[in-house]
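Input record (one chain):
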Amino acid sequence: MVFGIQYFSIHDGNGIRTNVFLKGCPLRCIWCHNPEGFDGNATLSFSESKCTGCRACFELCPDVHRMDNGVHHIKRDKCTCCFRCVEACEGQALEQSGQQKTVSEVLEAVRRDRRYYDTSGGGVTLTGGEPMSQPEFTEAILEACKSEGINTALETCGFAEPRLFERILPFVDTFLYDIKETDSDVHKEFTGVDNTLILETLKLLAGFDKKIILRCPIIPGLNDRTDHFKNLARMSTLYSCIEGVEIMPYHTLGISKTARLGTFSQDSYETPSEDIVKSWTNEIVEFGGKVIKY
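The corresponding structure, as predicted from the sequence alone:
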């Protein structure tokens, strides 16, 4: 189940890359910028600003689509995700988030920019959601790419059974390893799970000397703390195969997405300025850490 394929990405590993977004995630980060990746199934997205009032969806699914006081409401507990309303929507206000794809279909999309990978040192990056929520599909895509000599990167939070990571090790060139929070109790508060398994998986991957980049979302008022930066600095030098910390500054993209999905209301946090991000970087470096800059 794939919810997007993004071409010509330059921020998700080395070189020019094609990002494949897989649905399903065991974490529930309160700031998530890809909430459409939470659910492992296809879901219905609605953009009220695009609605033309054609009422085609009301006729097709009157138990799901309602107009209350001039506002289009969706009874999501009644929706079976048949997506007939998506096909009928004149303004494309209704969209299906997530499509079933085969390994061959994904590989065909990835091959499209092969010439850019070869000249830039790029390749394919599997992300999400959490790709390891679909371990067999993830393994098959990675193996297929490696068989064609395409560089592979996997963005993961590390929250999956160790045996699943051991299976994909031969097919991954770089792990983009998400570290949301270094304090275990706070990690559970922010994501719904503690970080015990995540740290164990990191140790496992390092034991195989795999190339690892620590990707660290920093959200003002939540984890922009000195103790967190100090721990990130320590982690960046914990294993020789870790190239460093990549700071991922908070942005508000997830707020509009959660509104379209009708799942939950996401709080907004301050978007950091370049100077603030630079100060975070400097703090990690001052603690002896390694920071990656693209």
